[in-house]
Structure prediction request, 114 residues.
Amino acid sequence: MQYALLIYEDEAQYEDAKAWRAIIQAHQAFAGELAEKGLLRGGTGLKGADTATTVRKTRGQYGLHDGPFAESKEQLGGFYLIEAEDLDAALAWARKLPLGGDGAVEVRPVIDED
Prediction:
């Protein structure tokens, strides 16, 4: 089964170039391990939340809003799409996913169209 590992962190912690390089190296190693085991299906980092535009439908009307969907201290920074035997295996990978500080990894199964 495929799972999305959605990464939520405070992107301000990466304004320092040294911290940015360190987390990129950690993610390259993590992605390399997933790929080596044949479990990596996709994923990427995202540009900052200040580049986001949200399309919201309210009472049948669509509107555009600058920024992410919700105001929070953590922003969606990227994701991995992985193959895992079950939720427990996906959670084990989520625990290994590098975070620069406090943050969260949301684990969500992908809809199986079979």
The helical segments are 17-36, 87-96. The longest strand covers residues 75-83.
